[in-house]
Amino acid sequence: MKKYGFYGWETADITDAKGLTPRDYYDLLSDIWCADTCAPRMRGDWSAENKTFGQCSITAFLMQDIYGGKVLGVALPDGNYHCFNDVGGCVFDLTSEQFGDKRLDYTDCPEQLREKHFAKEEKRQRYEVLKERLAASVRAKG
């Protein structure tokens, strides 16, 4: 099996209706994440070498659309939350690589609500762009 760098990749074996796992979606998203889908306040630090940077909430809510479950958030020192997914105990964070070697604590994290995150119109728009590009990529994969 190919090795991945995102948190939970070893046990991210859930599948959607098309038979795709979170690892499959990571591969697809790796070609889609870009400065345009990065959080505006973080774009200056986004790079092709750190594609997952600033992509957490829109990616986690997109995975929730696909697999269900909950989007949870690790509290960060700046008062924001880093979003990840918990689907019936299958915990994975497709954007954890943005933290490099720093290990996050994924225990006892509060649920993140789409309504609160998408109250920011720019975030909802970035989510829609990512969703549309991912759908096109899945269609192209066949």
Name the descriptors.
142 residues, three-stranded antiparallel beta sheet, 4 helices, 3 strands
Tell me the Rg in angstroms: 14 Å
Largest beta sheet: what is the strand line-up? 1-2-3
The percent of residues in helical segments reads: 25-40%
The overall pLDDT, averaged over residues, is 96
Counted beta strands: 3
Tally of helical segments: 4
Low-confidence region ranges = none
Distance between the termini: 22 Å
| Main beta sheet | 3 strands, antiparallel
Question: Can you write the helix and strand succession as a string?
Answer: HHEEEHH
Describe this structure in words.
The chain has 142 residues and is of the alpha+beta class. It has one domain. It has a 3-stranded antiparallel beta sheet with strand order 1-2-3, with helices on one face.
